[in-house]
């Protein structure tokens, strides 16, 4: 597939782009800084500028596309990851502005150019736990896509707004637009670098609901979305199968979630950020775990 990918130079994006290249796709990366990865062309563009997004949506993906002399091909899919990645980087209102206007512009340009598959990055933060003022417990465990999304911070607010925006575009067009509520992204080197501290102090993982997503498995999730047509508008949690500390699920519930209803049975090391919907509807099967590295 010929894919326009926004935010491919970021922590998550660069791993997903590499994964998509391995699957044989062609990727044009749109970002503020280029991605130095063989096989990827870059466009430096501002997602909050509608004109720039319309331009890149009708752009060549490389100089070689001049050779056929048949004009600019249409993208088969858009994957939108570009964003201010959390609170406390920009001002709150700038975070909200960039993330909401950027997403509107990307999806608007995609549908106006007839791109019938759009995948966009939402967030674990929509469930209001991650950036809460003080401790916020989920309404129930495990958290699935039916859990309320009523956050109070500007980043998570922007992601909830983006989900509504995407749903509205899908209702207008009938295209496939899938949102990914991405859990805390972990790069392969971070297992040895960061996880020993999580073993010593599980409190460090409470705001991430003790869950994580390996950046390579996030690439697989995007590929599953690219290969699955006809779902219309859907949102999916994206996580690995296990939680990110050495305690058992029962020990975590006893220490952190007393009084929180538990739906069904949760396995000894099973994630509290349910990926069951992605498995059921997309065939997603995460392959990586910190336990493979640290034992």
TrEMBL record:
The keyword Oxidoreductase applies. The keyword Hydrolase does not apply. Keywords: Oxidoreductase. SUPFAM superfamilies: NAD(P)-binding Rossmann-fold domains. Signal peptide: none annotated. InterPro entries: Epimerase_deHydtase, NAD(P)-bd_dom_sf. GO terms for molecular function: uronate dehydrogenase activity. Residues 3-192 form the NAD-dependent epimerase/dehydratase domain. Gene3D superfamilies: NAD(P)-binding Rossmann-like Domain. Its EC number is 1.1.1.203. This is Uronate dehydrogenase. It comes from Antarctobacter heliothermus. The lineage of its organism: Bacteria, Pseudomonadati, Pseudomonadota, Alphaproteobacteria, Rhodobacterales.
